[in-house]
Structure formats: C-alpha cells, structure tokens
Specification:
This is G-protein coupled receptors family 1 profile domain-containing protein. This protein is mainly α. It has 10 helices and no strands.
Length: about 325
Amino acid sequence: MERVVYIITLVDLTLLLVTSVLVLIYLLSIIFIKRFHTTNNILTGNVCLAGILCAIYWVIDTVVTVFYPALLDDYTVLCILSQFFPTMFNCLSIYSLVIITVNRFFTVVYPKKRLFQRKTWCFISIIVQWITAIFVPIPQLVFDCQSCIYKTPLPYWINIYKLLVIVIIPSILQLVFNAMIFSFVRSSSKRVHATTATAIAPVANSKHQHNRDMYLLKHMVFLLAVFVIGWAPNCGTIYSTSFLLNFYSFSVVVIVPSIVNIIFNSLIFMSVRSSTRRIKALTTTTTTTITVTNITHQDKRDTYLLKHIVFMFIVFISGWAPAYGLLY
C-alpha cells in the first residue's frame, strides 16, 4: 500500500514540475518579448505566475506530507502554514481566472471606456486579486493555530468555508459575468441583424452571428464545467454522509435559487440598461429640456432596478441561510 502511495506521489510531483516548467517558459515569453506586452497577455501572465507558485507550494507540501510527516508535529509554525497556505495558493490561482472574466466583461460591455483598455486597470485588477487571495484564508488562521498547538481537529465550518471561497463563490462570479457577456453579445447580434435585414446576404450573416453566439455559449459552459470539476475534489474532506444530506438541502433551498436569481436578474438589468443606451443614442441630436429630463429619469429607473435586485437578493440569503445553522 505504501509503495502505491509513493508511486502516485511521484507521478503527481512529476506532473506538477513539468507543468511548472512549461508555464514558466510561456511566462518568460510574455515578459521578454515586447509585442506581447498587452493587457490580455499581462492577465495571462498573472495566471501563469499564480499557477507556478501554486504548483511549487503543492510540490513542497506533498514532499513534506508523504516523506517527512513528523515535521508537521515537531514544528508548530510549519503545521499552521500547511493549513493556511493551501487555501491562499488555491485562491491565488482560481481568482486569477476570475479576474480575466471580469476584465473581459468590462472590455466587451464598455469598449469606449479607455480606462478598461489601459494596462493601469489591468494591474489594479491583479493587485485586488492578490490581496483577496491573501486575506481570504485569514478567518481560518485562529482555528489553524488552535488545531496545531492543542492538537485538536478543525471546526467543520472551516471545510465549508474552503468550499465556498475555492469553488462556489468563484463559480458564481464566473457564471454571472459570463452570462452578462453573452447577453450583451447576443443583443448586439440582434441589433446588427436588424440593421442588415435589407442586405444582399442577410441569411448568411445571421447564421454566422448565430454560430458565433452558440460557440461563445458552449465555450463558457465548458470552462465553467472544467472549473468546478477541477477544483471541487480539492475540498473532498467535507464529503461525509451527514454533511451531504444537509448540504444538499442547503444547495436546493439557498444556493441554486440564489444562482438562478443572480443570473436572470443580471440578464434583466443588462437588457434594460442596453435599452436605455439605445434610447440615449437616438436622442443625442436633440437638446431639449424634455429629452434631458427623460434621460435622467431612465438613469434613475435603472439605478432603482439595480438597488431593488440587490436588496431582494440580500433578503433572500439572510432569510434562508440561518435555517441551515447545522452546517456550521
């Protein structure tokens, strides 16, 4: 049995090291080739750097855990770091992917905003992602210290917290921003189709746009599936029978409706907001007081809709989540 464990460990270490070397080569090409210094490549380089650091940590963690397990008992600091660092480095890698989706959303929806095209915005996003990854594991630090000093098991809610910050919250963010991107692209395709309805080959153009939209949708769904399937097993320590039953109820009553609520409300808001922009575009040639008043009214209406959506979502979560206190 030990021999099998060692073989699996060596395979894992080999894969991690090979992946790190390949990603490092890609990262160095982005750093030293000047024409690659674009916002998209900077974000990709950030993913590479986060992936390398995450892989290096897991190599060290695997070696210590499998070959030198006594070190975790002899050195309290090493024990604490071995519980704190996994969440931090996993979040560092995960949220680097989320930042790409968020930046893509702002670039697609606000193409005329120069701020979202600049490298400054790109670096601000990266800094926010790193700060988030460092601070997310802090709530568990006190319990990590207690567990390592007094040799007590961690509270059960720590594993749930890890599942939330590593899988559920990033998945929701990916889902929401990708849904808004798809909604915006789809509405743009409909507007383009409407303006080219009298063209020579409207059917071919419409089919091309439809295929492009479907490819975008399939790509988003595929990435989300890979994202969830790839990271969920990392939180496998929480999957006991009693927990699964409670968590299933919690998911059905709170998490799944919340995700559906967020997605459809986001699509509603995006549709209303795009309608407001079209109305503004049609009224840019007029400068009457009535036109200005109408535009102001539309902006207030959109803001009110957004506040209402956020308020109802908060009421929904805060109303149902406490009913599942057994999970914590």
